[in-house]
Amino acid sequence: MSLDELKSALPDYAKDLKLNLGSVIGNSELPQQQLWGTVLACAIASRSARVLRELEPEARENLTPEAYTAAKSAAAIMAMNNVFYRTRHLLSDPEYGTLRAGLRMNVIGNPGVEKVDFELWSLAVSAVNGCGQCLDSHEQVLRKAGVDRETVQEAFKIAAVITAVGTTLDAEAVLAEQLSV
Fold first, then answer.
1. Catalytic residue among 24, 45, 52, 131
2. What is the pTM of this model?
3. I need a labelling partner for 30 at 20 to 30 A (CA). Which of 91, 96, 130, 156 fits?
4. What is the pLDDT of residues 131-170, one digit of tens each?
């Protein structure tokens, strides 16, 4: 129901997003936990209240309480790590890379779900947040664990579509407000 509401809310010019949203969620070959954990983590990372409101109930229905919490944890820890590591990478002084991070990241070592699932969600959030260093790190862990490229790509396809849907719907809300003024 929520997915259908999101699709119907998209304007005509975003027909491709409507089709892609139905495809990446409705036709995904990911197992339910990986799919809905990715959807929830990306909905949070998209920063779109509308997307999160519409997708969270279905994610909650399709995830165990532990997986639900872990997906939210992936979004939270990556919000911090993506800013930190992206900034460290973008600074022209390489000496920042030699300094101790000094940030608590305990959830990465004990996420409460299979490590592969948490890594997949972390990779998807890192795609939303544009952190190349985190993308490389999580992709390497996934590949070493035997996850194929198609599965990795599925996660960042979900991230791309959910982020685009959020951007489009949030822009439409602002434009509608301006028209009513």
1. 131
2. 0.95
3. 130
4. 999 999 999 999 999 999 999 999 999 999 999 999 999 9
